[in-house]
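ok so for the tutorial part 2 we go from a plain amino acid sequence to predicted structure tokens. step 1 is just haveing the sequence, like this:
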Amino acid sequence: MFEMLLDCRLMKITIRVISHFRPHLDEVVAACLASWFGNMDFVKRFCKDMTLELGIGVGIFNEHHQEGREDPKEKTNKILLEIYGDKADLISNIDEECCATIMSRVLGIYKAPRLKKLLNFVRNNDNKGIKQKDDIAHLFKVMNELWPNEQEKNIEWLIDALALKLEKDSRNGDFTTKRIMEVKKIERVRFSFFTAKEWIGRAEKAQEENQSAFERTVEELDRLVKAKQAKTTRFFLEKTLVKIIAFRSDEIRSMSAARWHKGQNADVIIKKNSRGQVTIWVNPKKDLKIQEVAGVVRLAEQEKEGRVIIDNWQQLRQEGSIGGDDKLFLHMETNSLLNGSLTHPDTDPLLLSLDELMFLVWIALDPKAFFPPMKECFTCSSSRKEPCPLYRYGLPQCRTARFKQKQRIAA
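step 2 — the prediction. this is what the tokens look like for a chain of 411 residues:
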């Protein structure tokens, strides 16, 4: 959990902002918008005990899907209608929203011309992962990875840049450090928290340390593969080769290193840290479906625990988390299945081993994965007396086989 105090400019009062560990760009921007544009009505409605929750809890400023929670789109639109009536900027697709865009709608400034470039930048970063190596979103993330004990300082660095862009350069969509320094020099304005030398020095230090750490991680991953401590396998998806790699690592950059085209160049990555928490990523360019992986792994983990609560194939493949006991979060925007993350480090680890996970991911993604091994399963013979070990997972290749079988019977 992270918390900090922010001054509300319009009322000269201070509110307490709380978020998850290592807040994201969209939550920091949401906090800034509340600080810069929030009025007393906003504070009374959304800041219980003078506290504003962003990216956590069950309020509208947490846009993530959670089973059993009121649909975030409907909940937010209901509140917007209460505040603005037929003039409300309603949400049409919650998957295109983030904490900052929801905040702007609540404050009635979503369509303000001076916010257009900023909100587009935040939305693209949060939902689509669009970034540049020297833009402030990427560097803020790197700073939180390198210096997790300096979260407040990292946020102050980001707020200095955001305030400058909004006040002096709001119609320009360039959020790189180079552009920030150009505007600062032209406008001759001061940052609130850093001197110009300190601000750019922190950015350059983050870039240098991140690059050095990445290069070390690439070398370490290559060593693990050569020593057979990292496991790899391959299969063909039609005529395209798909590479899976599974390994143990606590290094934050190991996922990027495994993806790197000059390194392992993996299409599917399974990483388990020393706590047992797992991250799985698939390459969407190879037409690999992370939701199929989620469905199989979620069911297998429940079986490993000795209690299956959810076995519905559709529900197992839902985005977000599917229940209070679900250890996994399906993040469709990044094609990832997360068992804990930098922002949720206390999530209970999976019981499944790396070998088990590698098998489960393979059968979820390879359309030729049948039991017993064969090129194609023409007839599904699974029954209650003699169940096929793969039937319970609802694999796409099994669903196709059963559909074809029904067609043959009908003909």
